[in-house]
Amino acid sequence: MDVVVVESPAKAKTINKYLGGGYTVLASYGHVRDLPAKDGSVDPDADFAMQWEVDGKSSKRLADIATAMKSADRLILATDPDREGEAISWHVLEVLNAKKVLKGKPVQRVVFNAITKQAVLDAMAKPRDIDTPLVEAYLARRALDYLVGFTLSPVLWRKLPGARSAGRVQSVALRLVCSRENEIETFVPQEYWTLLARLATPAGDEFEARLSEWDGRKTGRLDVKDGETATAIRTFLERASFSVASVEARPQKRNPWPPFTTSTLQMEASRKLGFSAQRTMQVAQRLYEGVDVGGETVGLITYMRTDGVQIAPEAITATRKVIAAEYGERYLPEKPRLYSTKAKNAQEAHEAIRPTDLSRLPKAVARFMEDEQARLYELIWKRTVASQMESADFERTTVDIVASADGRAAGLRATGQVLKFDGFLKLYTESKDDEDDEEGGGRLPKMAAGDALARRGITSTQHFTEPPPRFTEATLVKKMEELGIGRPSTYAATLATLRDREYVNVDKKRLIPSDKGRLVTAFLESFFERWVEYDFTASLEEELDKISSGDMDWREVLRRFWQTFSAHVAEVKDLRVSQVLDALNEELAAHVFPARADGSDPRVCQVCGTGKLSLKLGKFGAFIGCSNYPECRYTRQLGTVEGEGEGIGGDGTKLLGTDPVSGLEVTLRVGRFGPYVQLGEGDKPKRASLPRGWTADAMDLEKALRLLELPRQVGTHPETGKPIESNIGRYGPYVAHDGVYANLDSVDEVFTVGLNRAVAVLAEKKEKGARGRATPVALKTLGDHPEGGEMTVRDGRYGPYVAWGKIYATLPKGSDPQAVTPEQAVALLSEKAGKSPAKAKAARSSGKSAAKANGAAADGEAAEGTARASTAARSTAGKAKTSSRKTATAAKASAPKAASGKAAGDKPAARARKSDG
To answer: Is the dihedral of CA 546, 552, 554, 557 positive or negative?
Structure first.
């Protein structure tokens, strides 16, 4: 008998069916060891010795594998085909060697690029040894990320209260977002004019031509810079005669795009499907591991962490058969298309992401999948098939025109493009924002050189250049890939970390750096400039790649990095806070102290007239204050300008007006959990937090009163006679009726939603709830809780969560469910239980039968823990209950209840080690 070790139990079950008797397939449930979240886990003084820790549940899994090996003939390590998968195999082998259970038995490594019977059998026929250089590259990357996180993050906490962490890749990605925001803020619009002539051929067909030459010089898009010049040219064209100088028509081809890599899949799924990078990878993982299709579980796509664009010859053959059958021979090129990777950071020789069986048409298998799975599968299938289709044929026509008057001449140009054959475009068009702008429109009328043209009209239009657009997740991934920063497996986790740390906000898919994020970036650029340089980070990635290819020694790379990095950290630790503030005032001057309209010094306090404005660091972050404090108490919230939000940022308030009904003052304030509005004073005044997307500087009395009036009575349900309310909760806007809660599309809809719309969304939610009461499947078991009862990781409607008895705690955004340790789970559950004693008691009484407590309620309970989970995850297991009591006490003392769930000043501990995912 042979023992086969894979990562997930779902994969183990499927592969066991394929291999049959003679094999025992066991799951490692992801990583079995990790670096403990404490100092000393990587010891530079001991040549970077790494202290690994096996969590409780992994101990049981490893014990099961060790027991199975006692009667086995061979160990086959079949974890995922990437650097992480190679590392998991290495960890399993290290533990088994330490247990001395192998006793000379052969150990082999196989990789499954797809979970299909043929792919599995082919892989089993080609075993190899563990790739030692690939493991060493993993060790180097893990050590680097640990050392940066555990060394740099404490410096941030001391010098920038409110900052959470810094990471090797995370910080560089944040710098990209902040740099783009700086470009936007400092952008100076440039005026330019376009001149168009509406002309007609001798046959009377009209078309437009654009100015292309003036005063003997070629004229580009931005060359007519003012209205005076534009008027002079327009006046000339209005009295000129026009004739055709030349007509050129030439064919053009557009070739299809290659199949998906990890980054291009994330980009296109964001543009076409609206998926975040993290969600794309979660759905792709399920498609890879297998879906029940007609009673058989099969993997529908190949491995989804890759930067290769080539696909196997047999897949190309299958794709060509599909093209001929579905679209005809006209769409099939004479020879197969072969692609090669051009990305700067490409290193792993895996296939591109493609369907495992191209004959499984999306429409045929959609009924076996969830909606998101079906949509992503269709996207992958279309891209793969289109990559082998015939090119699209265009005819591009360029007409050059001469305008003559008074012995002077000007040139105009008209362009047109006509699609002659759609080719691959019949099936797939990449998103518009990723294509080059196409000049010209459709077909031009028939013309010949020498034809006289009639003037129908001349227009001159003023324009202004626009700043570069903010990054989306898709364009940020593309930029990181171009610069050679990060790797396919890190992009989603890096983006999730930026959101979780509240370093960036997402508005209509656009990434906007928060003030906290800009402070962190300014600090790093001022004091750790080398380590956030794009070229430095990319060169480090190249060194890691050289390690994986066996061309560099991994410890030597760590030695060189640590020698300079640790020395620099020691220097920065000695800086006074005043020195840090001086540097930040200089670095963020344009953002924090914008120029005043009267030309006066933007840093002179206009309240006292003598003090100097400067960044100040408070318990809950940064704000702007006057140097004459406490005589002058002027403060301003960071990110606002003078006249907006004064008095917010320290202990002050901003008066918005008086409530016409009660006569009480309505004020805008900032508490521990962010800005909120308050009605009157007293022990328990009415308060309301600002919803996501609302800013303090944009608040006025009308908006404040609308918030304070919530919940809003929408009406009475026509069937039950019970009231329907609209409100804003911690998960966004919603309507509620008789215990049923349904999300609304936007905050504004809370104040406008009518009865018919409310009834419809409630009915839709109720219908979905009825269909979704199946018990969520356990993704991972974590062993027994210290108080008894099994802990599991499950996947619910709102994402993965930890379950113990009747307590459910959602994992922090971006967390890998397979990487959760028992200690982290205990911390999350203790935090949740600390806020609900009744639930804690219920969990203890039913902990041993926790599996029965899961169901439809699990999703709802898991969702309730989202806002608190991030804070809990940063606490060690031993301090979890104390932390929860402190958090609860602080929240009551410093913030309104309505604003809970957005802690900005908590101090991270355990999470710093994985700041890059």
So the answer is: negative
